Amino acid sequence: MSAVPKDGSYAWFYSGITALVCFLFIGLIDSIGITVAVFIVHYNESNAKGGWVGSIITFLIFALAPVVVYIYNRCGFRWCMFIASVFYCLSLITTPFVPNMNFVFLTYAIPTGISISFISTLSIVTQREYFSKYFGFAIGVRYSASALGSVVMSFILPFAFNGMGFKHTLQSLLAFLPFILCYGLVSRHQVTNVDTRSHKYQKSTKNIYWEFLQDRTFTLSLVGIALYLLCSMIPFIFMVRYGMTLGHPLSKAKWFLVVKGITALVGTLLIGRKNDKLLKHGKVKLISVGVCVIFGVLSFLCSFVKSFPLLMVYMALIGLVDGAWWAAYPVLVVEITSGYHSTEAFGLTNFVGALARLPGPPFLGWLFDITGDFRYVFYVMFVISMIAAVLSAMSSRVSVEKHLSLSEKSNLRKTDIESSEGREDAPCCFFDNLVIEEALTYETSV
Asked: 311 burial class (0-12, 13-18, 19+ CB within 10 angstroms)?
């Protein structure tokens, strides 16, 4: 057994390593629009089929979150990173040799989605084990690194594909593999002993999920989050391809993702440093609602323009609001659950979001193919984001029975733990009426 001080020097060291890994791997996935465009041209396939590559990857990243959390709790962080490295290596070794796009789904989309799901999910949920006072800020650092990675990767990948070719570019990405392994080695797997203190709160994951869905505030917020996750992925998957259909070469169309990454970095930095204060006052949901409205309005207005400079402005503004949303997203999950099993809540939210994301890009790619007009895609994005905003706003207005309220259950759980083990063994961090458990005793495993 060992005690790892929260917000200490090791916590910031872990945050720095997490930022580096997210810079490389999440940045690579956030530039998927480049890779999808290359796949479409290389295999001479339709936009709809190319959309399935990005859709499968993002679906798996989110859908596997509950599975990743389960494996993490049972096997530890290092085994999770080992699994991630195996699938990452597999995708880049096999994909350069496949003859058509059908094989790409099996060799690239699925293994990459599995690998990045481990990295993405654990880079977020493990922050609660290292940070208390600066949890929101640490989340902001993580997403800022991802946004910066998106900028760099979106800038470099077109040069790599043009200079080294399709095959050698994919193989060169194997150089990132050691970073996954090092991430597993330097990180300490910490197992919280909170649930062992009270038999009353030893619940199966299935029961915990059912409790979440019984709270109407959480359920409406969950649907709103899922809808935004659906429409937010469209620009970074299809805008590069859309630019190419307007006559711009890949070397020019890539700037859509570059500028989006730069402004997303600004958005994550602005909100990330305010996360803890917003959580303290229960205002994180306002960020979510505001982002949905702005995203929808911008997409609707963009349907009237086709000039490259104005499309660049659109992507810059989309990056700004999307970066703000992602920086607030994990903290939003903590807020709407009042800290009650927030790790499981994050897994469930990602899974539902994945179900919404899977059919979205292929359907919109098909719509783009049959109409030849991207305006209809912008219209769909506008409608979906507006619905997401309405549902998120309504979630704060619905009444919830006291025995079904996650906030009440969080307070009861805290009280039971304190009475059974004593206050010194279960310190808590209070954000007004929001209570988030923190355990100081951990079991360190290899």
From this structure: buried
Q: For residue 124, give both structure tokens.
A: 């977020």
Domains along the chain?
2-403 (1.20.1250.20)
Q: Which sign, positive or negative, has the C-alpha torsion 209, 325, 306, 50?
A: negative
Of 355, 348, 410, the C-alpha closest to 210 is: 348
Q: What is the pLDDT, as a whole number, of residue 85? A: 94
Where do we find the tokens 């295999």?
43
Identify which has the larger pLDDT, 53 or 441. Answer: 53
Question: 357-416: per-residue pLDDT in tens?
Answer: 777 777 877 888 888 888 888 898 899 999 999 998 888 776 555 545 555 555 555 454
Per-residue pLDDT at 104 exceeds 80: yes
Contact 142, 127 (CB under 8 A): yes
User: Over the stretch 119-161, which tens digit does the pLDDT of each residue have?
Assistant: 999 998 888 888 888 887 888 888 888 888 888 888 888 888 8
CA angle 245, 251, 255 (to 5 degrees): 85
Per-residue buried b or exposed e for 389-398, using 16+ beta carbons within 10 Å of the residue's own CB = bbbbbbbeee
Write down the pLDDT at residue 236.
75
Nearest to 413 by CA among 435, 433, 430: 435
